[in-house]
Amino acid sequence: MAKGKLVIMGSGEAAPGMTKVHRELLSGLDEVRAVNLDTPYGFQLNVPQMTQKLVDYFKVSLQTDLKPLSFINYEKSSGVERELFRQGVREANYVFAGPGSPSYALAQWKGLDLQEDLLHVLDNGGVVCFSSAAALTLGAFTAPIYEIYKAGAEPYWLEGLNLMGLLGIDCAVIPHFNNAEGQDYDTSCCYLGFERLECLEELLLDEVAVLGIDEHTALSIDLDMRTTSIVGKSNAYWRSNGNSEVISTGAIIPSRKLPNYLTTNSQIKKITECLTTTTPLDLAKIIELGGPNTQEALAKLVVMANRSGEGHIDPSPLIDSLLLARASLKKEGNYQFADQIREMIYAVGIKIEDGPEGSTWSIGDSR
User: Fold this and answer.
1) What is the pLDDT of residues 167-207, one digit of tens each?
2) Statement to judge: residues 85 and 181 lie in one domain
3) Is the separation of the CB atoms in 271 and 263 below 8 Å?
């Protein structure tokens, strides 16, 4: 079965500009089973009105029945209620969640392991569409917007659902990235302001980036095609270790352009299992996918290449392909990733020599 799509909206989930995005996503489903998760705004007194507004929008603008799937409070819910909610998510193929409080949503969802249910939807060809507050929960870490912006807390992170991490992308998600409601003071970066975002970024591990998404803009990750596209009024941003890359609206890029390849949880399990094998084809597939065990797989191939008898292979096509990929990255100006490939090859005992006519390699001491 084809994998599904994770769609992250910066805002405007029920605005005319995002109607086309919803419609195209819904049109790709054979039988629509759409649900709305009310948890992010579950602390508000107008929960029924908020839900009805979304139900009406889907009905009128999208001719789609949106089923309310309510889960307001983890502590006050019974085990049966929790399980019914999780089943409702897993049986859907269009899961929507939007405005509210990211910290409140996390407090209710974390005990459910909701990320596993969302991954199940994606693995079965469904769509997970999170916007605004709900979008903030998708990363490895979540910024508590109300606590920092409204209550004056010093910048800090909460542990997120990390659905992005399960897909191979280590990041925190910041919607409303270009917000300008403050006019004479900075409310960008989801009302935090750029200065406070930089403080938050300093608290992140080096390998964790920030994915910013502008208002009335959607970032769509197609897990089947392994592409990432940007639609809507503005842009998305990939910020890592002080560097920021703009992903312009209208762009459709291979997901490998992001620092990590998109690898579903089931693929990660398969890749890990393959590392216990000695089949060159399996190891080559691991390297092709670019998963977390690429270096170990390459090392095993080099060992095979250096020994005689059963299991001996010629690594030339593989290494040559890696060198071609490295040359392409350098041509695009992506020297950081090109250097990472070089260091990976060095680490497993392959010597590279760069020359005016290209790169050559040999097996031996790397330094």
Assistant:
1) 888 999 999 999 999 888 999 999 999 999 999 999 998 88
2) yes
3) yes
Q: What is the token pair recorded at 264?
A: 């579903």
Range 343-353 average pLDDT: 71
| 29: amino acid identity, one letter | L
Question: Can you list the alpha helix ranges (DSSP code H) found in 7-138?
Answer: 16-27, 47-62, 79-91, 102-109, 114-123, 132-136
Q: Are 313 and 301 in contact (CB under 8 A)?
A: yes
For residues 59 and 68, what is the distance between their CA atoms, to the nearest angstrom?
13
Task: Tell me the sheet residues that pair with 212.
Answer: 174, 237
The DSSP letter of residue 140 is S
Q: pTM surpassing 0.90?
A: no
Q: Tell me how far apart the alpha carbons of residues 212 and 321 are, in angstroms, rounded to a whole number.
A: 33
Q: Which domain holds residue 329?
A: 265-363
Percent of the chain surpassing pLDDT 70: 75
Q: Are residues 184 and 282 in the same domain?
A: no
DSSP symbols for 2-29: ---EEEEESS-TTSHHHHHHHHHHHHT-
Q: Can you give the pLDDT at residue 296?
A: 59
The H-or-E segment that residue 337 falls in is helix 335-347
Picking from 225, 257, 289, the residue at the C-terminal end of a domain is 257
